[in-house]
Design goal:
The protein has 2 domains: 28 residues; 198 residues, no CATH class. The longest helix is centred in the N-terminal third of the chain and has 19 residues. With 230 residues, the chain is α+β, with helices and mostly antiparallel strands. It contains 5 helices and 11 strands, in the order H-E-E-E-E-H-H-E-E-E-H-H-E-E-E-E. Helices cover 17% and strands 26% of the residues.
């Protein structure tokens, strides 16, 4: 009996570590699918530009619920791990703006040099000021922000256990929409610290998801994006 208990305990610990540990090899997560991405310039700037910064490591997974009752919705999870940049680095070069369409983060420097169609695919910024912020708040890139106010991404901080978040991501991605506060209008920018968890809603695509602040130093953030499983 003691041997059986030890085996169960080790199994539970191993399962937990594959999802939660900062030192984890995130490739050990169960990959259901892989989303292809278009080939683009380096997120920190053009490859031939002096001063371009190392891009963060992005691990991407897709989760489809095991049970037919809930497999109409799937979840794409991105784990973004930024390197530690020098204190005097130009902040405009840090990959910060996230696009769920591309599954990448792009710097302000890059966005000022790209075309409008790429700018329109940015959802929110993640890095600067320890804040989640709608990309449309940056008037230097989008001076017509107020025209799109109703569609701006919004964030709602909630308290959920790590095991609950894992369950939503892997088996119940419909929970992200179900727990969204439809009777209120959450803000389009929020401050964060390590351990925080936020729901988000992207008005332009009518998509729901979550953001978990794994660590501030080094900066590690996970994004969970739900969509129809078609």
């Amino acid at each position: 009996m003691k041997t059986v208990k030890n085996v169960v305990f080790l199994f539970i610990m191993a399962l937990s570590l594959t999802f939660t540990a900062c030192e984890e090899d995130s490739e050990t997560l169960n990959i259901v699918g892989k989303i292809s991405r278009p080939t683009k310039e380096k997120p920190g700037g053009f490859t031939d530009q002096p001063g371009a910064l190392p891009a963060p490591k992005i691990t991407e997974k897709m989760y489809i619920p095991e049970y037919d009752l809930w497999d109409h919705t799937r979840c794409i999870a991105w784990r973004i791990e930024w390197p530690e940049y020098p204190a005097d680095v130009n902040p405009d070069m840090i990959p910060d703006f996230f696009s769920s369409e591309y599954g990448e983060v792009y710097s302000f420097n890059f966005l000022t040099r790209t075309d409008q169609s790429n700018k329109a695919q940015m959802d929110f910024s993640l890095y600067h000021g320890n804040m989640l912020r709608s990309s449309w708040y940056n008037f230097e890139l989008w001076p017509w922000y107020e025209d799109y106010l109703a569609e701006s991404p919004r964030f709602k901080k909630i308290d959920r256990s790590l095991s609950s978040i894992e369950h939503w991501v892997t088996e119940r991605p419909d929970r992200f929409e179900k727990f969204w506060p439809s009777d209120e209008s959450p803000p389009s920018e929020v401050s964060y610290q390590a351990g925080d968890f936020f729901l988000f809603h992207l008005g332009k695509a009518n998509r729901y998801g979550g953001i978990r602040i794994v660590s501030e130093t080094p900066r590690i953030i996970e994004i969970y994006y739900t969509e129809p499983n078609i």
